[in-house]
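Hi R.,

As promised on Friday, here is the backbone we talked about, encoded as C-alpha cells. Could you run it through your design pipeline when you get a chance and send me back a sequence?
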C-alpha cells in the first residue's frame, strides 16, 4: 500500500518519540507542521523545510514554530522510494527543530536514523534527472551519459576524458 504524507509523518514521529534525544514537546511540535509536495519535475531537491518569510535561520530560538511547511518530492511516496522518503522527512524534521546548518550536531542526529540507505540520494537524483531529461550529453570517448534538459551545444567537456560532449536527443 502506498503511504500518504500523513502516514509517513506518523511513522517518523513515532520513531523519534522513542528516542531519548528528542523530547515529547519537540515531537508534538513537529506534528503540527504542514506537509506538501515539491514539483514533480524537481531533480535536485528531495525535500525542503520552508521557514516563514523573514525568519532568522541562524537564531538560537529557531524551531518548529518558524516552519511554514515541509515539502517532499512526490516520488518519495512510491513503493520503491518510501523508505528513503522517511529518511528525507527525518532530515527535514531535524532542520525544523532549529538545526539549520549541516554541522556536526546535525550529522550526529541524522546518523541516528535507523535505516541508513547508502547512495539512495544519488540514485534518486539520477533517476529524476533521467525522467526529466530531453537530452543526453554523451562522451564519445568513455560513453558516460549526462541527462540534461538543454543542449550542451559543444560547450561542455567530459570530466574524465576532457573530450567535448555530444548532444543526443532523447
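Update: got your reply. Pasting your designed sequence below so it's all in one thread:
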Amino acid at each position: 500500500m502506498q503511504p500518504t504524507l500523513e502516514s509517513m509523518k506518523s511513522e517518523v514521529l513515532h520513531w523519534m518519540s522513542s528516542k531519548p534525544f528528542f523530547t515529547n514537546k519537540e515531537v508534538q511540535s513537529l506534528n503540527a507542521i504542514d506537509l506538501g509536495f515539491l514539483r514533480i519535475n524537481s531533480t535536485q531537491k528531495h525535500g525542503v523545510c520552508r521557514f516563514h518569510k523573514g525568519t532568522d535561520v541562524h537564531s538560537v530560538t529557531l524551531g518548529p514554530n518558524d516552519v511554514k511547511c515541509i515539502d517532499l518530492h512526490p516520488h518519495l511516496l512510491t513503493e520503491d522510494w518510501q523508505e528513503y522518503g522517511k529518511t528525507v522527512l527525518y532530515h527535514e524534521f531535524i532542520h525544523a527543530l532549529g538545526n539549520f546548518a549541516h554541522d556536526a550536531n546535525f550529522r550526529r542526529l541524522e546518523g541516528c536514523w535507523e535505516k541508513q540507505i547508502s547512495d539512495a540520494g544519488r540514485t534518486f537524483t539520477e533517476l529524476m534527472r533521467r525522467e526529466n531529461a530531453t537530452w543526453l550529453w554523451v562522451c564519445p570517448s568513455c560513453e558516460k551519459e549526462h541527462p540534461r534538459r538543454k543542449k550542451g551545444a559543444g560547450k561542455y567537456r567530459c570530466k574524465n576524458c576532457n573530450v567535448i560532449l555530444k548532444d543526443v536527443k532523447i
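One thing I noticed while checking it: The beta strands are 35-37, 47-51, 67-72, 135-138, 145-148, 166-169.

Thanks again,
M.
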